[in-house]
Model the fold of this input.
Amino acid sequence: AGIVCRTLSRVVSSQTSCCSSVVSVRHSHWFTSILSPKTSVPLRAEPKKKKKVDPRREQMMKERLKKKLKKLERVPPELIPIEDFITTAKCFDETRVREVPKLSFEETERRALLLKHWSRYKFSQHQAEMAEIKEALEAQRQALEELKIESEDLYKAAIGPDTDLFPFQHQGPCYTPPIPNYEAPDGKYNDITRVYTQ
Amino acid sequence: AAPFRCIYRPLWRVITGSGRLTVGMRNISFTENHFSATNHKTASVGSPWTLHGAVCLQRLPVISQDRNPIEEEFSGLMQQMELERSLLSDHELRLLEDAARMSRKQEEDYDSDEEEDYGDKEIVTAQDLEDAWEQKLKQFHPAQRSNGDKLDVSSSERCLADSLVLLIKQDVGSQKVWLLPQVQWKAGETLRQTAERALAHLPADVKATFLGNAPCGFYKYKYPKDIQKEGSVGAKVFFFKAVMCSPNHLPLEKNSFAWVKKDELKDFLTPEYLKQVNRFIMSL
Done:
């Protein structure tokens, strides 16, 4: 638009120049054309006195803002709730209480005796397991001693770590043996775990 | 029972500390069971014992063991106690509501508009859901737990609930003897490599993971006098444990291979050999 105005003013001035001398006033540098756009800063105003104070003021403003931001950020982030520790409201629902039949004396006696029997059984099982493990360790220790007597090199090779062993994976026992060539159906599921971000 | 993966056998890193003399150095000749005078000092130049490496290949249990009577009783008690101390679940609440609604329907002054959340006429009661689930379960046919006594000793699918060890009938000297697969040690290889070679010599192609570099046991025997050459009094066998990775159902010869449980070992092995082997084969 500026260019258009300037060309227009030139056209106008060229047209009017031949008409009257009043037009020549327009060409003087004291009068800027009305049609020309006011693009430049008014050069005739007071000289700027705010050159030093303004940047300082702006800097002060920025610092103040930054300090406020830092104060806000210093607040510790909200802790992520541990879902396992929160008892759901469902558990406090009174309609869910189960009616428990009262136990007879014989039943309580039977339970107490069974628990004692169980603890004895488990203890003996534990002793047997520990003894077996101890025996196996002893056998290994003696084997290594014999090997040391035989040859030092083989002994050192035997003592060295086995890098290929770990990570060790083995499919544990299930209730029924695996069916050969079994195609399991697709298990679709909706994952509703809540993910928290700090 | 939920399946659990990643058993890992504890790595036994045994470090022989002080040089304690081994107690009870046994010298057993293979043919006769007499105990000769103890032979503490090993040979002056080199050792007179030829070394062998043997592999104790185990097939770990595939299914869980059956419960003892005490275990059955206790698990029953535990389930009962858990049930008594629990709250009603959503499904059970739904069952109760359905039952209540049914009983209200039977009454004469029944007004279906009073029902809240009745929905449309089609209702799937919780009982129907249960029946549908039962039907679906019946469609699945799991494999049989026990194969019965159809399988003989040479099959590796024998007793799925126990861990089995592979035995081989080899000729030692002049006799055929059942023992763990063993092979003589060659110079320049570690004993574990000997054991791996012993495994490779089997006709069956099994993939096994060796559990560590250290031997788990050893067995020492003297050759009978007539075979004793100069420089070899007897042999020392070092056993290495290995776990079979994938079940391989290649049929093995009946008379020379056997997959054996721990308590069946005594039917196959000689007493002294059995004594040493029983120490590290675990029936856990």
